[in-house]
Write a structure and sequence with these properties.
Ten copies of one chain form a homodecamer. By secondary structure, chain A is of the alpha+beta class. In chain A, 19% of the residues lie in helices and 36% in strands. In chain A, a hairpin with a 6-residue loop joins strand 5 and strand 6 (123-131). The first copy, chain A, is elongated and about 50 Å long. The relative contact order of chain A is 0.21.
């Protein structure tokens, strides 16, 4: 590879896309005939930095426009708790969370944002939007 | 149902769309020939969580562009107070409030937002917009 | 009237549109060939609630793009002070102020916002925009 | 003049457009092939109110997209200091500053905003945008 | 040159475009098939003012939409640290950082903002956006 | 009574001192040999105004230095919830809460503060300190 | 008088100490055997400046430790409203309010603070404490 | 036991006082002849709630006046990380941390404060001070 | 002088103690039999730096417990305005203001604080207290 | 040494007490007969971490009651700049700064506080007070 890449990174995170996490439950949206949005903030997210093995802390925000299903909060919380001992990069958390909530609730639109605590004097925020 | 649904939820909230609430009164808009908006914030909303039976607390915001009628604040406050002992999910509060203010004042446009207090470390905000 | 109206309201405020207020003076815009905006905030507005007879307090904001004339601030302040003993609903203050500043300065565009103090646990903000 | 004007105002400020101020120096933009913006805030602006002779205080903000030249900050500061003893209305400060920075640096786009301190309970902000 | 330029400026900074800085490493974006953004804030940036020789302090923000590569944070921090003893104007920092991150990660879109500390009562913020 | 008292008040609240509330449970303080303090904030307190019958909302804060027992939070929350339908003046809430927590945990020192939401444009905070 | 006094002031305000205001009602303190404090904030105070005839606006705060009586809020609000058309200096408002609440409720201790809005670029706060 | 205790609590936490945690290292205070203080804030503390098994999150603050030794930050961080999977009540975290830092650095004075995130609508802060 | 002094400073400011400023007027304190305090904030203070000749900006705060006289605000404002073209060090402003208000109003106690804007990245606040 | 010390620390910093720094100049206090204080905040302090070789950033605050001499700000700024390339622990910065300002200005009283930026998720503040 001719790029100036940090070699030890790659290969270590490809398994993230297929890693097993607890199922996110949904419940019926009794106002599915209306367009509205639901914003959820989970300020107590923690995972493990795959490079240092030390814990990372972040604030996860999800906003979505439900179709037939709404995300059930208790199972969503348990889903987030499952990251506690997983080694995963910031960029991948956002993408994996988005894929999982879309698979669970098949919403019209969604966005996922994770804002991480300071590391080495640097603050990182990763964001992804989805439209069906 | 093949979805991974939280079974005990559904069925419990369908009655919300037809539940009886106090009437929201209106008064004549003497500037109905002008386009303008009215924003109302009610920071003392409380209802009952249908799963736990414990009280939820939230801040309700309404913004609307009146046509012939304006929402009368005293009756609106009494309308909100009527949720105090009702078991209702966050998502449904917003939708029911929207349907009721539109029926009462037949405004040009409206939005309803409810921001709930922290539960299980999670903060939820539900929003709906309406255009006639 | 088949509407669920708060009867005692109407009729009481129609005179607002023709009530006499002090004149708002203007001065010549020496940069009338340029498009620019002027934002004025008056945080000490007070009027009387027509239902209770008790004083209301609010913050009035005006933004406008002047044409040939600018609003003179001293006369504008006196204009606002004239509401001190007037019984007038929130919705009508915004509309009357807009009509009066447009008549005085014939600006290209304007907006008027009044944010009221808490009453019965409710915060109200009324806004109107104008384009010539 | 049939307008309800504050007579003593006009005539007094027309000279502002031709008043002499210190030159604003510029330096070569070595990234003139890139589009980027520069935002400058000067929180210590003071001039004289032409009606009362008392000092006014304000915060001047400039944002611009440079073409071949950038505004040199030291000369810009001296330019602002020259208003210290000038009697000039809020509206005219913004317009004169815009004309002078455009003449000096011939930028692609610019905006000038001045936010003034409270006078008679009133807060004023004047803004102008420019596109070449 | 007929412009009113601050003569001693030019010539001094043209070398900035070719100055050598440490390489910014990248790692493979395992979600390259998704559109998402990464925001990085580095609040501890310092360089030297080329006019006075005194240190400047600023906050660097980068936001980008990665294509095949993500910026590796540790090497990015070392890249920023290399400015510590470089004499460079505010405007040029932003442009040089943008050129270097685009060369390293060839992202879809990016923006770079540097907000500097007060100098002579003046606060400066420089911003540049990039779309491939 | 020669005082200028609001007659209808008294007599109505004397029963508050003997009203029955749920028991506040305690657990053993395993660091009873150390002096330390515990501060608890419950931002979702609501009771009924005995004059108007309308709900009041407040934020309850308790700080105490435990002796042999600590207040158990779940039972404390249930204790607060029991006020939801009780008609009680602001002043009396603070005093009753203090008497009940002291009876339950026999702490060295304690303070109770309740800050109420705006009523009639007035914000009320009631505070009491206790030392054994 | 050899002092450098603003002559027209004195004489004008001596009547304030004997001016008639609405009675402040009290109600029985059913926890008079406990020491606790009550803090009341009234953010909507307005009176008239005796020099200019223009309205002043302020925030009145009262804190007191009740003995046998508590201040009744509705009558206190009416007492404050009575200042709306009274010409009175800032310094005298605080002193008169203190004398009146002490006469009404004969509390153990009290403090009164009034913070006024900006006038001529100056912000004034007047405070008085009382111990029986 | 005649107290109204939450029975299942006690017995479960007594082992906390003797639980094994990583050693907190110290380094020599080269200014031991001077009195000064060191304040450390660790905003990323997490442990397990012994009742629910769910994670708790808090902010730990330590302030101390060193004698011959200072707390070494890297080992202190590792010490805090060791709580990540420990079931421990809020009250006990503060006491155990205090005992451990005093044993390690034998400082003149110290205080430990832990502020926890919201649980069941309740925010808890536990504090302990120590003087040798 | 054996001290490492910045020689050009001294001698330049000794005249400040005898420099002539406008008189500060007072008015009779009709509540001179009560102890209370008056706090005045003047956020628009400006003077000249004696070293650079450039303007300094600051916020002046005065708090005092009046005896027989109160400071008259209009003359106080004119007194502050007189510093606009005076070359004076930060330290000396506070001392001169204190001497002048004490001479004018012979109050029981007073404090003067001036907080200056950033210069060379440094923020300075000078404070003096006085008790008769 | 029987302590659990981080061995590589000691020995490395003892030279700090005798390291050479630029002289802090002083100027004559023309109000030396008055007691007053001067507070200086320098938000742009940077030094090198002796363990990692990476830069640390902090905010230095000094407050002192001058006797015959005041600290001259320009030389103080140059004194702070001299730490830019010095490897020094947080605890030692505060102590060395205090020793140097006391030697320079022999003030009555002084305090020095340095608040450092986040490192490893930890925020550190070091403080020392001095009385002659």
């Amino acid at each position: 590879m001719e790029k100036n890449t940090a070699g030890s990174y790659e290969g270590r995170q490809n398994h993230i896309r297929s890693l097993s996490f607890p199922a996110i439950e949904v419940f019926e949206n009794i106002y599915a005939d209306k367009e509205y949005s639901i914003h959820i903030e989970f300020p107590e997210f923690t995972a493990i930095c795959p490079k240092t093995g030390l814990p990372d802390f972040g604030i996860v925000s999800i906003e979505y426009f439900p179709d037939k299903w709404c995300l059930e909060l208790k199972s969503l919380k348990e889903y987030f708790l499952a990251y506690r001992n997983v080694g995963i990069f910031h960029e991948n958390v956002v993408n994996r969370v988005m894929d999982d909530i879309v698979a669970a609730a098949q919403m019209h639109k969604a966005s996922v944002v994770v804002k991480y605590g300071t590391r080495g004097g640097i603050v990182t925020t990763v964001s992804r939007s989805y439209t069906r």
